[in-house]
Amino acid sequence: MSENAFLRARRPEHKRQRREAILSAARELALRSGVREVSLGGVAAAVGMAKSNLARYFATREEIYLELSAREWQDWKHAVLARLPPSPTPDAVVDALTDTLAERPLFCDLLSHSATSLEHNVTVDAARAYKVCVLDVIGTLTEAIARTRPGFTEGEARELVAAATGLAALVYPASNPPPALAELYAREPDLAAACVPFQPTVKRLLSALAAGLPALR
Q1: What is the pTM of this model?
Q2: Under 8 Å CB-to-CB from 164, ≥6 apart: which residues?
Q3: pLDDT recorded at residue 10
Q4: C-alpha angle 38/43/49, rounded to 5°?
Q5: Residue 173, domain extent
Q6: Are both 139 and 161 inside the same structural domain?
């Protein structure tokens, strides 16, 4: 879309279209090169806007990705709920949480940046909207797991959900190294142990937590 088209738009639906165009461009850029590599100027160029005009809709790059992250949280919630069987075993709960994360590399990438960068340089309103979304997702999944899996208390279910996303944020960068590290691991296989496989690593750690939580009561 041209810059002139953006300038002419005045109606609320046009403003929503602009925001969606910005979010879509930011998503595509992040999928292509990773969240860390995307700049505000890059997003503006991708949608055909001047960076100063883009700031009318999102104050910062971080606010763009914080909103995308909130959407990814909601998408993950629906996927987990659809994956949970009526009366899941602990392994089935872990599988539902882990497998749906593995299917969402952008979500995992966003999780790995949330606390360290995306929650910085944002307005209070943007931060509040994000946190309300995250707590809603965790609360919904907590209730679903505790209801369908009586072996977990509500508190244990909440810890399990929070741990799943925390582990994803921790393991994803290690399992998807930047080019220099990828080349290093290819040259020196002994160092490649630092590049852990995402899905089995998260699943094993989350399984250990699920098995251990009842013992801490």
Answers
A1: 0.90
A2: 97, 98, 101, 202, 206
A3: 67
A4: 160
A5: 60-216
A6: yes
